[in-house]
Amino acid sequence: MRAAIAYRHRPTALHACRATVAASFGASIVLAALIAANPVVLAALLVAVCGAASLASVAREVRTAAAWTLVPLVAMTVIVNLLVSREGLTVFARLGDWAVLGQVNLTLEALVYGLVTALRIVIVVLACVLAYCTADPDELLAASRRWLPHSGLAAVLGTRMLPVLAADAARLSQAQRCRADGGATGARARLAILRATVQGALDRSLDVAAVLEMRGYGAGRRTRREHEPLSRHDIAFAAAAAAIVALALASTALASASFSVYPLIRAHFGFTALALGAATVCAALLPFLDQRGVER
Predict the structure, then answer these.
(1) In contact, 58 and 133? CB cutoff 8 Å
(2) Can you list the positions of beta strands (E) in the chain?
(3) Which of 37, 49, 156, 193 has its CB 3.0 to 4.6 Å from that of 141, i.e. a possible disulfide?
């Protein structure tokens, strides 16, 4: 059975730190993937996010997200870039004139650029799932209320409603199949499904609004929060997030780790790139070694 992609507290070091730090840790991997260009560093980020997901006990959720989204996204990214790009010089196939696309020449540079972009997409998606499954949305709501009360409430409610909407979609799909088996097909059946969906969404929105109003949301008052001191897990993962971004910036600044595709591939896969990749993996996974206090 597929794992539901939702936050559940687990006895891990990443779950033990505060939600803002856990979200920042995932965001640092996303930012590093967008900054870094060297495939060695990107591969290290992929290893880091997969290792972090395993150590945070959310590997099943990450695999579920990968199975649903990554295969079509990766294939589409590589194929579209290979057909559309005109900047590469190393042609390995000439496909002739394709009307709207014009003369289509497949180049090695376009293929490599598409693969690197696809690798970035994989890392970004997995890092977002990691942050979603390890950052407590209620704590994020409490942290964001002080500065952006309405935006924080909307964002957190949106993430918490995803499992509910997924369950609704499964039930509606099953109901639609039952109607088809019973003979109620065509526009009439689809209209009934649409009416039930809209009515359910409106009822749920009224219930949520009533509950929030009872709890004081929207009253315009700012609540005081007691600031808890940073735990060792907070400090460790915050430092890891900063180190991951710093290493990605270093990979773009150092000439010995540079990587460019167009018009010809120029890549450095030497000691510097390998060292930056190894340091990235270590920075991401070392905070998980401290297991003290993870039961809270």
Answers:
(1) yes
(2) 91-97, 103-107, 259-260, 266-267
(3) 156
